[in-house]
Amino acid sequence: MTSILEILIRNIKKTNYFEGPQHNADVRISKMLTYINENIDKPELLKVENLADVFVMSTTYVSEYFKKQVNMPLREYIIKAKLKLVEIRLLNSDFTLTEIAQELGFTDVSHLSKTFKKYVGTSIREFKNNGEYMLLTRNACTA
């Protein structure tokens, strides 16, 4: 079961979590989305300063460029992408909340729980009891 979950997670990391640029897209945003998704569990690589270095942009322009291309702030995209992985782990693994929080760069379980509730609109306990994906089945979130 764990190996199946890891294959699923690896494939999800290779996809964009939300609809990408609708028009006037350039290769740079596609590469940026891929980079973010492949490194979603490495918060140090997702900092604006690092993204600016990797994609040869100024630090002040990275967030502006991302929002212009994806119609969503960079920070929000990263949070929602992480929360989709949280959903997968909650429903398909035996990982503890502490393990999930640590793996995805949340400060602690409380931070994960509050963020989950804010964006998903339900508590982690309610989500697990319901047993259905919420963020994976929609592009728009409540926050």
Concise summary:
The chain has 143 residues and is mostly helical.
Structure explained in plain terms:
- With 143 residues, this protein is mainly α.
- The protein folds into two domains: 24-71; 77-130, Orthogonal Bundle (Arc Repressor Mutant, subunit A), CATH 1.10.10.
- The protein is 62% helix and 0% strand.
- The chain has helices at residues 2-13, 27-38, 48-54, 59-70, 74-92, 97-103, 109-120, 124-130.
- Helix 3 crosses helix 4 (59-70).
- The model is unreliable at 17-24 (pLDDT under 50).
- It comes from Arenibacter algicola.
- Residues 30-130 form the HTH araC/xylS-type domain.
Indicate the low-confidence ranges by residue numbers.
17-24
What is the CA–CA distance across the termini?
32 Å
Overall CATH class of the largest domain: Mainly Alpha
Question: What name does the CATH topology of the largest domain carry?
Answer: Arc Repressor Mutant, subunit A
Number of helices: 8
Task: Using the alpha-carbon principal axes, give the shape.
Answer: elongated
Please give the largest β-sheet. Answer: none
Q: State Rg.
A: 15 Å
The share of residues in helices is 55-70%
Sketch the topology as an H/E string, one letter per element: HHHHHHHH
CATH superfamily of the largest domain, by name, is: Homeodomain-like
The name of the CATH architecture of the largest domain is Orthogonal Bundle
Number of strands: 0
Mean pLDDT: 83
Strand content: under 5%
Please identify the structural class as seen in this structure.
mainly alpha
Please, how many domains? 2
Organism: Arenibacter algicola
Keywords: DNA-binding, Transcription, Transcription regulation
Domain HTH araC/xylS-type: 30-130
Protein name: Melibiose operon regulatory protein
